[in-house]
């Protein structure tokens, strides 16, 4: 019946499908758009959950995962938005809840009472359902006529699979009490929405609000797990050590790793900016979430650096959260963004990120040089993100910088109060760390480095004199 045959058995249809597959039917544009809109909303709501639970989540590893998975969700939501816009769909309606029952399902997960229940809702129910919906679209749409959607869904599926695998590992080690009861309740909510993509027959009834019966309120106060033994400690000024030419350069990567790991607080600040900002284009969310993930990567660079050096940071290095605590509790979202931009601008001159990269090179520690190389590249991108969104909002760079300076000057990190209230003794932990590192590597401690002692009693370090001599 069909005499068509590829030339010399070359792959037909650009290799994306056989003729039989291409002729097998598929979804109409209307059905395709309806499904894609619900997939978009699922990514969008998951992004919101990751962002709004990141700051108050105490477990460091989960903060890092939420940062990455929020980035994935923002990117895939953007790709789905772009695809829907191509498909005869004005107005797009992408900011309208596609299904009230589906929204209750995500509200329930967002309001989960603890980390274990949150993980079960996200990784035990929602993410697997999203993976199944992507698989179904790829299976049921026409691979040729809807190839642009196929690409979007295929790329999304790749990273959702990664999220599913991560979740399985988490649920194995952090089991939730009443796991099956909670899972069945959430799956029932989803069934009452007709499934994530709306392709299933709806279960009768309206989803019951249990956790979300009380309205969810974003908590901007950062929390840390028990390994962060002294989170108010400001007893060591890493920048002063790095810019001091008299300090041994081979020890400076330890301070760089401390600085990088301490960047755990930047995702906390950016998450609070995103959580408390409305009315911005989705591109704003995509860019700031990318920056959030980059800062989480920087923290992990510090974690890796200490591991390579044989150092247990939990034992030797108190990682403080005073910066994110102060910004998140004392400033508005716009004011936080202003401070973030102001600090980023200070990292751009040769005495900023370039200097840290040169320290890494001079130290002889290859990972330190590699980490600082990418840290510098990321910060250039972040400065551009600040110009694209914050500066445009303020009107011009001069006004934006001045406002950032003004906001930063109002931030109070009360060194003396932290100590007087018994929150910390501002231990100078450097000599103990340095002595241990020297012993591990069979070297005698440098007397100058060993005697290093300073504090961070100033609210904001004035590095002008330090950088002038660097």
Structure characterization notes:
The chain has 470 residues and is an all-alpha fold. It contains 21 helices and no strands. It is globular and about 80 Å long.
Mean pLDDT: 93
Strand content: under 5%
CATH architecture of the largest domain: Up-down Bundle
Shape: globular
Unreliable stretches: 456-470
Q: Note the main sheet.
A: none
Q: Percentage of helical residues?
A: 55-70%
Q: Which structural class best describes the helix and strand composition?
A: mainly alpha
CATH topology of the largest domain: Heme Oxygenase, Chain A
Radius of gyration, Cα only, in angstroms? 25 Å
Output the CATH class name of the largest domain: Mainly Alpha
Q: How many distinct beta strands?
A: 0
Number of helices: 21
Topology pattern, helix = H, strand = E: HHHHHHHHHHHHHHHHHHHHH
Count of the separate structural domains: 2
Distance between the termini: 80 Å
Keywords:
disordered C terminus, 0% strand, mainly alpha, 2 domains, 470 residues, 63% helix, Ferritin
Short description:
This protein has 470 residues and is mostly helical. The chain is built from 21 helices and no strands.
Question: Which helices and strands, and how do they pair?
Answer:
Elements: H1 19-22, H2 29-54, H3 60-85, H4 100-110, H5 115-140, H6 147-173, H7 179-192, H8 238-243, H9 252-261, H10 265-275, H11 282-308, H12 313-316, H13 322-330, H14 333-346, H15 353-363, H16 366-394, H17 397-410, H18 415-420, H19 430-440, H20 447-450, H21 464-468
Helix pairs in contact: 2-3, 2-4, 2-5, 2-10, 3-6, 3-11, 4-5, 4-7, 5-6, 5-7, 9-11, 10-11, 10-13, 10-14, 11-16, 14-16, 14-17, 15-16, 16-17
């Amino acid at each position: 019946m069909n005499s068509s045959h590829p030339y010399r058995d070359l792959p037909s249809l650009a290799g994306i499908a056989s003729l039989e597959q291409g002729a097998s039917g598929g979804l109409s544009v209307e059905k395709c758009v309806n499904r894609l809109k619900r997939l978009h909303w699922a990514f969008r709501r998951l992004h919101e959950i990751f962002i709004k639970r990141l700051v108050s989540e105490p477990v460091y590893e989960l903060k890092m995962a939420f940062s990455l998975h929020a980035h994935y969700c923002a990117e895939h939501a953007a790709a789905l938005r772009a695809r829907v816009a191509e498909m005869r769909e004005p107005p797009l309606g992408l900011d309208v809840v596609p299904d009230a029952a589906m929204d209750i399902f995500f509200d329930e997960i967002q309001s989960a009472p603890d980390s274990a229940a949150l993980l079960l809702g996200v990784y035990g129910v929602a993410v697997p359902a999203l993976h199944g919906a992507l698989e179904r679209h790829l299976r049921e749409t026409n691979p040729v006529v809807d190839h642009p959607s196929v690409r979007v869904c295929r790329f999304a599926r790749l990273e959702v699979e990664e999220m599913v695998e991560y979740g399985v590992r988490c649920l194995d080690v952090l089991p939730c009490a009443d796991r099956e009861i909670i899972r069945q309740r959430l799956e029932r909510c989803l069934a009452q929405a007709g499934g994530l993509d709306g392709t299933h027959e709806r279960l009768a009834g309206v989803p019951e609000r249990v956790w979300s019966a009380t309205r969810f309120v974003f908590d901007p106060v950062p929390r840390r797990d028990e390994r962060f033994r002294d989170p108010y400690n400001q007893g060591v000024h890493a920048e002063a050590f790095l810019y001091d030419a008299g300090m041994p350069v081979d020890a400076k990567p330890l301070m760089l790793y401390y600085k990088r790991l301490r960047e755990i607080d930047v995702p906390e600040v950016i998450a609070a900016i995103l959580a408390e900002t409305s009315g911005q284009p989705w591109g704003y969310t995509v860019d700031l979430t990318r920056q959030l993930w980059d800062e989480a990567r920087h923290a992990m660079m510090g974690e890796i650096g200490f591991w390579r050096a044989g150092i247990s940071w939990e034992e030797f290095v108190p990682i403080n959260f005073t910066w994110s605590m102060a910004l998140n509790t004392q400033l508005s979202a716009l004011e936080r963004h202003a401070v973030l931009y102001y600090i980023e601008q200070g990292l751009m001159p040769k005495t900023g990120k370039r200097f840290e990269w040169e320290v890494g090179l001079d130290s002889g520690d290859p990972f330190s040089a590699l980490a600082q190389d990418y840290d510098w590249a990321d910060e250039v991108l972040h400065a551009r993100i600040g110009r694209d969104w914050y500066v445009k909002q303020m009107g011009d760079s001069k006004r934006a910088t001045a406002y950032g300076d003004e906001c930063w000057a109002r931030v109070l990190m009360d060194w003396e109060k932290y100590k007087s209230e018994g929150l910390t003794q501002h231990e100078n932990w450097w000599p103990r760390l340095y002595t241990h590192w020297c012993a591990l590597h069979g070297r005698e401690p440098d007397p100058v480095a060993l005697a290093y002692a300073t504090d961070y009693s100033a609210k904001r370090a004035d590095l002008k004199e330090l950088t002038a001599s660097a």
